[in-house]
Request: fold
Amino acid sequence: MREYFIQNNAKSVKYRRIITIILLISLSAYLVYQMMNGDRGFLALFKLSEKHRVLERDISNLDNQKQSLEKKVYMLKPESLNLDLLDEQVRRKLGYSKEGETVYVDK
Reply:
């Protein structure tokens, strides 16, 4: 009876080791997968960095557009009104001309 118990105990230790190794390998595989493909993994990091780069470029373009529009608004204020620019805009946008001028329309 004692011999049977010792053999049975040796088998259970062997099975525990095998189960422990399988669990550790499974846990390691899961962690590696999460490290690569998880919400905070390397692929997510690369996607976020690309998105950040695109947004930075968009911000730069919008800043340039804003500066251009601010310059145009400044030029239209009464204290900085450029009469030549105003005359050009009125002629181009509204189609006005002075007396005695001939207007040619290019189609």
